[in-house]
């Protein structure tokens, strides 16, 4: 088997593959065995017709397509390995010559990864994020914990305040007519949460238990219900009950209740350490993103549309998975936002282009600095994945190979090494 590559323009070229006559005949034999069991020839049982009888009746040419289908995957994989090209789309294959007892010749028009002209990528200057933990940050964390462990107590006297839970009956009217979905009974509303349309919760603030009140509001112009957009409305509201959060004291007892520590000071020290580690992770991510974007900005590359489209499809799938984790689906999302998949892709396109550009630049840096992941690196990653998913390495490898993802894992490892290299050789200011 022989293979050669000729670049035509930009990132498009022609792959020429020649296959020896022996391999052609072997593929024809396999094709015959495949179809022999499906044909009916008088005087012979299915699968027992001799080859020469089959060819005399149907012609050897009837086996050609099956034989080509047998040869193509192996020949194409061999050619990619032999020439070292990296396709980014399905090839346009043309069978130029195929016959029994003769070599096969085919050409494939292939789009490959574009050439990246790297600019400056070593010694890039990025802003260093502070990882110092302030007293205010510790206080904010303690405040969140106070809120989470607050006791809800009834309020018998006094007016409703922001932060209270108001139990209300309400009904909304537009032009004096009640509208669908505008009525509720014994609805619990945390005042100041922004759960209702602007102005409503502010109108409840100051009400006393048992009080009734008309609250005048206007629906936002971008409200999801078309018939209510921008409309003035009146809500008749009755405050049935009022509850208030009672925050626990920030003392040793609180520390014992919410943590493994005996004193509030020990707990604060632990919070400070956790906040610092979080800020260090955030600072590292910021440094990685900044240095990759600067390296990409300094590089020159024409981004193929097919790579952007592939990345867009991946991003839509990621978005759909996030929606599902929140109990939604794409149809519901498009209905609520009055949009479409085409509009969503258009919104995502700049990020998709940035991702593709960054990945191409990282790939070029990995090659330039000899950072390509080795078989040993891949094996270690598979072991990590096997441990994470409680499967064997062989099972993980089989799943990735079946889905054509094994090379993606290797590329991701190489990209990570390139990112580490950029960070290691960057300067902070």
Describe this structure in words.
The protein is α+β, with helices and mostly antiparallel strands and 429 residues long. It folds into three domains: 110 residues, Trigger factor ribosome-binding domain (Alpha-Beta Plaits); 96 residues, Chitinase A, domain 3, CATH 3.10.50.40; 165 residues, Trigger factor, domain 2 (Orthogonal Bundle). The chain is built from 13 helices and eleven strands. Strands 6, 7, 8, 9 and 10 form a five-stranded antiparallel beta sheet that branches. Strands 1-2-4-3 form a four-stranded antiparallel beta sheet. A hairpin with a 6-residue loop joins strand 3 and strand 4. The model has no long low-confidence stretch (mean pLDDT 92).
């Amino acid at each position: 088997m022989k293979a050669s590559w000729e670049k035509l323009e930009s990132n498009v070229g022609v792959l020429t593959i020649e296959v020896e006559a022996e391999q052609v005949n072997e593929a024809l034999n396999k094709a015959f065995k495949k179809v022999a069991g499906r044909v009916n020839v008088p005087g012979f049982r299915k699968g027992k017709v001799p080859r020469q009888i089959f060819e005399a009746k149907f012609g050897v040419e009837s086996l050609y397509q099956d034989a080509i289908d047998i040869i193509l995957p192996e020949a194409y994989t061999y050619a990619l390995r032999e020439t070292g090209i990296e396709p980014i789309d399905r090839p346009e294959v043309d069978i130029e010559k195929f016959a029994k007892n003769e070599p096969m010749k085919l050409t494939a028009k292939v789009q490959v990864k574009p050439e990246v002209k790297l600019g400056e990528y070593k010694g890039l200057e990025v802003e260093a994020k502070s990882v110092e933990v302030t007293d205010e940050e510790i206080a904010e964390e303690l405040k969140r914990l106070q809120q989470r462990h607050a006791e809800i107590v009834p309020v018998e006297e006094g007016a409703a305040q922001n932060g209270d839970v108001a139990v209300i009956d309400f009904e909304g009217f537009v032009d004096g007519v009640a509208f669908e979905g505008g009525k509720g009974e014994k609805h619990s509303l945390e005042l100041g949460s922004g759960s209702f349309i602007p102005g409503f919760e502010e109108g409840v603030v100051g009400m006393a238990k048992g009080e009734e009140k008309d609250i005048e509001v206007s629906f936002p112009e971008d409200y999801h219900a078309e018939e209510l957009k921008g409309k003035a409305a009146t809500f008749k509201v009755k405050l049935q009950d009022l509850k208030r959060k009672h925050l626990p004291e920030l003392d040793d007892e609180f520390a014992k209740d919410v943590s493994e520590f005996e004193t509030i000071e020990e707990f604060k020290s632990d919070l400070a350490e956790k906040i610092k580690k979080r800020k260090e992770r955030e600072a590292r991510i910021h440094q990685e993103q900044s240095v990759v974007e600067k390296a990409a900005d300094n590089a020159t590359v024409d981004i193929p549309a097919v790579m952007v489209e592939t990345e867009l499809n991946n991003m839509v799938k990621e978005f759909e998975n996030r929606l599902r984790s929140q109990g939604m689906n794409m149809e519901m999302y498009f209905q609520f936002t009055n949009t479409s998949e085409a509009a969503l892709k258009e919104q995502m396109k700049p990020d998709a282009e940035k991702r593709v550009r960054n990945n191409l630049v990282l790939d070029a840096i990995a090659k330039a600095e000899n950072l390509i992941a080795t078989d040993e690196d891949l094996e270690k990653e598979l072991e990590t994945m096997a441990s994470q998913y409680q499967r064997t390495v062989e099972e993980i490898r089989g799943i990735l190979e079946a889905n054509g993802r094994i090379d993606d894992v290797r590329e991701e490892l190489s990209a990570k090494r390139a990112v580490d290299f950029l960070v290691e050789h960057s300067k902070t200011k």
